[in-house]
Amino acid sequence: MFDMRTYVSPIGYNSTSVVRPVLSRGVDPGDEICLLRPNEESDEQRATEAIEDIKRLLNEIEPDVTLTLKRITYDDYPTAVLECSDIITDANGDVIVNLSGGARDILVPLTTASFVHSEQTNATLSFSDIDGSVRELESPAMTASVPDNVASTLAMIVDQNECVSVPTLTEELDRSKSSITRHISSLEEQGLVQAEKHGRTKIVQSTFAGELYLRGRGSQ
């Protein structure tokens, strides 16, 4: 028994940027592929040909896959972000977002929406135009909320550039072990750090999301 997956992807004139990421994760009966197109296109025929190509390829692999098309308002960024957000939140099963191909007018709003809904998406993929590989991207926590005292703990972790122990943090920040432990738990819940036990000592490392969050906070 497979968990249903919904792939959300822009579609331009190149079917490869959709098919390769989908095949990298696999398709099973009942999966859905939701293709995002601008509400107006300069070359409808080429876009339609790309969609038909995707249908043909997927039908050869797994006929029981649903292919849906959604039109996105390309000339209004806030509206486009909200439309992409609705598509992600309404998707069924595991949600996999493909940030490859298609018009930038759709790709940028979808990227923003996928970062905002990083907790609702199971994976974010990208197809490389350079080497043809498919990579899984780490989505930053755009909705993280960190008080100043916890942010100082995060800053110390980021400054280490690699793993740091809880005893080191308590010494460097001159705070109690219980306070640092609470800070780490809060940061870990929001995906800003990773922590694991090494013997009796907890080791902590910042994530990409944690570093990005701290940079954004510093620019405010």
Automatic annotation (TrEMBL):
Question: Which UniProt key words apply to this protein?
Answer: DNA-binding
Has UniProt tagged this entry with the keyword Ion transport?
Answer: no
Location of the Csa3 N-terminal domain: 5-121
InterPro entries listed in its UniProt record: Csa3, Csa3_N, HTH_MarR-typ, WH-like_DNA-bd_sf, WH_DNA-bd_sf
Gene Ontology molecular functions: DNA binding; DNA-binding transcription factor activity
Pfam families, per the entry: Csa3_N, MarR_2
SUPFAM superfamilies per record: Winged helix' DNA-binding domain
Domain HTH marR-type: residue ranges: 146-199
Respond yes or no to whether keyword Protein transport is given for this record.
no
Q: Which NCBIfam families does UniProt cross-reference here?
A: cas_HTH (TIGR01884)
Q: What is this protein called?
A: CRISPR-associated DNA-binding Csa3
Which organism was this protein described from? Answer: Natrarchaeobaculum sulfurireducens
What lineage is on file?
Archaea, Methanobacteriati, Methanobacteriota, Stenosarchaea group, Halobacteria
